[in-house]
Specification:
The protein is 74% helix and 0% strand. It is mainly α. It has a domain at 80-323. It is globular, with a radius of gyration of 25 Å.
Length: 489
């Protein structure tokens, strides 16, 4: 008797089409728009619901649930280091508040900074700090928090202040040789970091100079003569009454900056700041104990002086304050992992590259995909890695030096990540500075001006090169000179 054997046919996996890939993208955008704009809700649930569009397409492509789940896990794994940094930064803020570090920074800042130069000084201070440390997150978590506090005391606009902090912090994040993104972009493109920085100096310098002018103009309407500084005096007096204010409280800040500048990894470097901040607090602050420090590290510092302005300013921090941000990062990277591993993002990129005929157009397409990756995959590193991988061969085919690709992804992916509310960088800024992305977005001048300047200069042949690394504008001049010499001969 012949037994019938059941034949199980494995479903073949196929490549995603452009239409399917766009469906996943459009469905996500619609969910986010309805949730955030329509219902004024946080992006967590809309992002989660939006990921089902990508899951649906993945099933159509032939993937099993086990595979889709593994894609999600791959995406989440990429963001785990960022999540840990978020948690450590939350603890840092709580401890520094309890130990008097942040209050001392705010106190002395209120004494030195004047309203008329505040926005300009904020950009410069954050720029210097981020260039020295190579960390935009570290700059915003330290100097940024203090400057936001000073802004409250000086009655300055918090959205403009946040925009100035973000602009200055991301200048260093883009140009510092100590920055992860500054090293990652050339690595993905296939060139060395020094060549990459040198090539970026012209477009970045132009964007930065314009940003300084904008923030200088924004501060002209705030003069010390016309400003109501009563709030500054009240906050300064209240802080002096509540905390022991001393220059020694700057020591933990200096330690963190030196640690990062010496290429100590972010987590141990920030942890050093927590330890030294706690030790100084135990010595200088009468109400600071090991118990209060541990509580502030977990739950954040709670100011209950009865002075509402100062209480609102100093009640923040703690690792629990970062949980919403961490959850958003996990959900966003679930979606990003599916889009990358199933080739849906690649399908969109392939469609774009087929239409490219000019070098400047390739630069624009690269930047567009980096920004799109920030929106879809919600992580700054992914916005550098994915386009870097996708377009490297195209740059080679069009005989362009890798510095062009490094500049394109760094000038788009690195700086625009803070402008996307559900991106890990946008989430971090909102959590750390206490102000929403859409509020500071119009004033993050450097961040949205940089890609525009790079694109404009690409069509002017300044940010595009030949395969030897010579800018086309220089190559054209040299060619004209050679032709003139040949005619003269």
């Amino acid at each position: 008797m012949v037994k019938k054997q059941s034949i199980v046919r494995k479903k073949k996996v196929r490549e995603a089409t452009l239409g399917e890939s766009l469906f996943s993208l459009v469905f996500l955008v619609m969910c986010l728009a309805v949730g955030i704009i329509g219902y004024k809700t946080d992006p967590h649930v809309p992002m989660f619901v939006g990921s089902f569009g990508a899951i649906f397409i993945s099933y159509r492509l032939g993937y099993r649930w086990e595979q889709i789940e593994s894609f999600m896990m791959k995406g989440i794994q990429k963001v785990v280091p960022s999540i840990v940094i978020l948690i450590v930064i939350g603890m840092l803020i709580g401890v520094w508040l309890d130990s008097g570090v942040v209050p001392s920074m705010i106190y002395y800042g209120l004494k030195v900074l004047k309203p008329s130069i505040f926005y300009l000084a904020t950009v410069v201070i954050c720029s210097i700090t981020s260039v020295a440390t190579g960390s935009s997150w570290g700059t915003m978590g330290t100097m940024g928090v203090a400057l936001m506090g000073i802004a409250v005391g000086l009655d300055m606009s918090l959205p403009i202040t946040a925009g100035a902090i973000v602009s200055g912090s991301y200048f260093g994040d883009k140009m510092s040789p100590l920055s992860d993104t500054t090293n990652l972009a050339p690595a993905m493109a296939g060139c060395d970091v020094i060549s990459g920085i040198r090539f970026m100096m012209i477009p970045t310098g132009i964007s930065y100079a314009i940003s300084l002018v904008v923030f200088f103009v924004l501060g002209l309407g705030h003069s010390s003569a016309h400003a109501d500084l009563s709030g500054v005096t009240k906050i300064s007096d209240a802080m002096a009454d509540t905390f022991t204010i001393s220059p020694i409280h700057f020591l933990p800040v200096i330690i963190v900056l030196v640690a990062v500048a010496c290429k100590v990894p972010a987590i141990p470097g920030i942890t050093l700041g927590i330890i030294f901040g706690a030790l100084i607090g135990l010595v200088t602050q009468p109400d600071c104990t090991i118990k209060t420090l541990m509580d502030c590290a977990i739950n954040g510092y709670v100011s209950d002086t009865g002075f509402e302005m100062m209480d609102n300013l100093l009640t923040k921090g703690g690792l629990l304050s970062m949980m919403s941000t961490c959850a958003m990062a996990i959900i966003a990277m679930m979606y990003g992992g599916i889009m990358e591993e199933t080739g849906q993002l690649q399908a969109v990129a392939n469609f774009i590259t087929k239409k490219i005929r000019r070098r400047a157009g390739l630069v624009g397409a690269t930047m567009g995909c980096s920004i799109l990756a920030n929106v879809i995959m919600a992580d700054q590193y992914v916005s550098l890695i994915v386009p870097g991988r996708m377009f490297a061969s195209k740059y080679k085919d069009m005989k362009m030096h890798p510095v062009c690709l490094a500049n394109a992804i760094a000038s788009s992916g690195a700086v625009t990540s803070a402008l996307v509310p559900w991106n890990t960088c946008g989430l971090y800024v909102a959590s750390t500075l206490g102000i929403g992305v859409f509020s500071y977005l119009p004033y993050a001048v450097f961040n949205y001006l940089t890609p525009l300047v790079v694109l404009l200069l690409a069509y002017m042949k300044v940010t595009v090169t030949d395969e030897e690394g010579v800018r086309l504008i220089h190559a054209r001049v040299e060619k004209s000179q050679d032709e003139e010499k040949s005619l003269a001969a």
